[in-house]
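Database export, one record per block. Field names are fixed; values are copied verbatim from the stored entry.
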Amino acid sequence: MAHAAEWGHWYDRDGKPCYEVPYADPSKGMRSVTLADARKLNLVPSVTTIIQEASRPGLERWKREQVLLAALTLPRLPDESEGDWIKRVYEDSGEQARKAAEKGTAIHAAIQQFYGPDILENIPDKKYEVYVDAVTLRLQVEFPAVNQWQPEASFATYGFGGKVDLCKDNGEDRIVIDFKTKEFFDSSKKLVWDEHCIQLAAYRKGLGIETARCFNVFVSVSNPGLVHIHEWKEEELQRGWLMFQALLDYWYAKTALKR
């Protein structure tokens, strides 16, 4: 089951994901959608694309930590210039970040695959079972009344689009869930940041279930089996929606794309 990278997605006006378009030369296959493509095809940006306009302190701190760790493990070589050493450190930290992102994406995909609609393909890779089992068990405990989730519901409205990991809307149970894979060994570490709340606030607005309870499910990459669930308060979500609207206005003003 393919699982595209989270950032930089586009959607058509009906809410259908449009992540790639064919090259002018069909023999070259597909390529990522650009802003020029979005103008031509009348696409809307994803929630996560809009959120990139704001600073993400958690991510930036993690990136700085990767640079520091790379510097500690890569001593300067004899006769190596400071500039060359710095370049090597940045390249190594970037490679570590890429590997971490790939692992996180694979775990996220395995969890999504479990909840996918195709019963013949919803058995995740064995090496990710511990993560999938931990998440499914926690969700069963946290939401005992929910027998079936709607996975990867997509939408496009108000000039933006998105695809939600899990949601439920049956009148009584209105829930929106977003999975996050992170490196943490216990739940006392700060896991939640404004961008998480902003994302969920936009998701529930886009889905048309403004009163939904919103949760981040944090899955530890570094401590397999550890899962932490965070529910956002209603006042936080209302604030998150206000922040998202401001970012959305800024993005459209910057890109001059038709809204």
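Remark 1: The chain has one domain: 10-255.
Remark 2: The chain has seven helices and nine strands.
End of record.
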